Amino acid sequence: MKFIIRFFLVGLFLFISCQNKKENTEAEATELVMYQPSEMAALMNTMYYMNLDTKKKILNNENIGSFPERFLTIHTATLTDTKDRTDDFVRFSNEYINNMKSFYRSDLVDRKNNFNKAIQSCIACHQTSCRGPIPRIKKLLIQ
Ligand code: HEC
Prior knowledge:
The protein is mainly α. The protein contains six helices and no strands.
């Protein structure tokens, strides 16, 4: 019985996660071809790859440049579901932007910790609004 409940919960979790990969039936394949990421989803993917690049720069002791102004479009980009821009979303996005800005202002010795703190604020928001990408985001953290 416990097993069945756990199985059900995992299924429910996968169902509600927002990066739910579906089986490719013909109808769903059409849906995939037609899929247009929202401005927010596109921004998120850009932020993911930019931060992956930043992580490499930190590990190689390279110059990280300055705060990327385009991160600020998190305040205006349209979401797949406009209901998602809740008060919580606004609060988490402010926290994320503040942490990113302090990371870009960091001294060399604090760079790693402040980077991880900024990435933790990606995760904090995702825990409330979109759990699917969390395992991917965690890979950005520097051990
Ligand atoms: C304030 C909340 C918030 C913050 C901060 C945030 N995200 Fe997101 N993220 C979302 C929401 C909501 C979506 C779903 C967007 C949509 O479908 O329109 C999303 C979607 C994503 C996706 C999936 C995009 C796709 O192709 O569907 C990835 C990957 C992602 N975020 C990574 C990140 C990373 C990396 C960071 C930090 C650098 C971050 N997120 C910060 C809320 C947030």
